[in-house]
Backbone:
């Protein structure tokens, strides 16, 4: 597929994340206005709520764009998703009769405040990149026992906190928690010393379920994708995770990018999961390619410093697709709801500079990375800004997600001090 031409000139650049081929959904506000639904196009955002109010967008069961979140559209079902995209492509295509009516509804992205694009109902995070799981397991158990016995058979995950999910640009506060040094008899309560990022993708459930669904049905349920940074307190996690897994170590914050890139926009970039080292049970069989060829990167910007790229990888490094994860999530009869968010788990490649966390990049702190300034990092320092980027590359265009960024603030004083 090649670049689709739009009357919004900035959308016709090969460098923009938001050509007509993309049309991601977000929520934005401007000075003195409430958050409202918008669609990114080039360096502008179309006020979709205004377009619907003016009758330029008409959806079955509408109005659906007036709430300041995309949940009503998600809940309206796949036929409405398809119809909305069709209408938007028509309205924004080169030569569209509605162009002059829509021009006043375009707002420069540079002057917009981007908000949470949807209300997160539940949040589940997975552990589904084999390279990441092998790296972490090797650090703690050695290469012979790196992967848990079940890893090659089942998408491992844990239920997180929907309340922890924040939009790009939100600051993140270094957390307090129980820490225990390897040579200490008892834990202490102190600020996290080994705070980390996790480069992930997030899949958003748009269609609810009331029982088990197949991989194909799960894929149909996914409304779109976001970049996701599942901030992690490694030292808190090391003490608390046995036997039930992550808890407070993962509850500080999870940052998502502000634009939901729809599954329809990603369709040309479908890619297969890797060959299986152990045959999966039949219910996890995929009817076709379920991953996407999306280039991903992470940058670290120290306070007052310059942006350093510390990792580059690709979404095809996943062992389990989001559709497989969602299918497995329903096997117990667990109902999925509109607005559920599934984190892919940290995405790492095979080379050192393709690892998706500082835990891996610094090999548990034993091999600190060096920034352009000469500073080193084993884990994050106060004032560091982490930014995730992602885009699928087409013929003369790219389908991007925008930035997914957060800055780490110092820990507060002891919250329990009297």
Residues:
């Amino acid at each position: 597929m090649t670049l689709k031409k739009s009357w919004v000139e900035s959308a016709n650049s090969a460098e923009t994340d938001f050509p007509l081929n993309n049309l991601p959904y977000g929520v934005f506000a401007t000075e003195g206005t409430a958050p409202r639904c918008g669609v990114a196009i080039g360096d502008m955002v179309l006020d979709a709520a205004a377009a619907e109010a003016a009758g330029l967008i008409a959806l079955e069961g509408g109005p659906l764009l007036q709430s300041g979140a995309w949940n009503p559209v998600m809940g309206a079902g796949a036929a409405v998703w398809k119809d909305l995209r069709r209408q938007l492509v028509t309205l924004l295509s080169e030569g569209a009769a509605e162009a002059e009516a829509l021009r006043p509804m375009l707002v420069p992205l540079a002057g917009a405040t981007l908000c949470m694009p949807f209300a997160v109902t539940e949040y589940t995070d997975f552990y589904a990149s084999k390279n990441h799981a092998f790296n972490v397991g090797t650090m703690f158990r050695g290469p012979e026992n790196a992967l848990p016995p079940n890893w090659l058979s089942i998408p491992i995950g844990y239920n997180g906190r929907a309340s922890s999910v924040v939009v790009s640009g939100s600051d993140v506060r270094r957390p307090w928690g129980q820490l225990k040094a390897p040579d200490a008899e008892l834990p202490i309560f102190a600020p996290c010393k080994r705070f980390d990022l996790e480069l992930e993708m997030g899949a958003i459930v748009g269609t609810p379920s009331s029982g088990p669904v197949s991989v194909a049905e799960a894929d149909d349920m996914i409304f779109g994708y976001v970049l996701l940074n599942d901030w992690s307190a490694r030292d808190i996690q090391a003490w608390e995770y046995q036997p039930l897994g992550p808890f407070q170590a993962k509850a500080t914050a999870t940052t998502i990018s502000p634009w939901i890139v729809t599954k329809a926009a990603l369709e040309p970039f479908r890619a297969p999961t890797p060959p299986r080292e152990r045959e999966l049970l039949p219910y996890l069989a995929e009817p076709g390619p379920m991953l996407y060829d999306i280039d991903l990167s992470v940058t670290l910007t120290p306070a007052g410093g310059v942006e350093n790229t510390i990792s580059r990888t690709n979404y095809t490094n996943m062992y389990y697709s989001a559709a497989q994860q969602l299918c497995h999530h329903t096997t117990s009869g667990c109902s999925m709801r509109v607005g559920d968010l599934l984190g892919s788990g940290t995405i790492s490649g095979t080379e050192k500079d393709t690892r998706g966390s500082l835990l891996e990049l610094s090999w548990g702190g034993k091999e600190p990375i060096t920034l352009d300034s000469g500073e080193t990092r084993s884990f994050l320092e106060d004032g560091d800004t982490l930014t995730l980027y992602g885009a699928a590359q087409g013929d003369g265009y790219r389908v991007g997600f925008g930035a997914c960024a957060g800055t780490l603030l110092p820990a507060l004083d002891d919250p329990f001090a009297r």
In short: The longest helix spans residues 78-92. The chain has two domains: 9-115, 123-409. The mean pLDDT is 97.
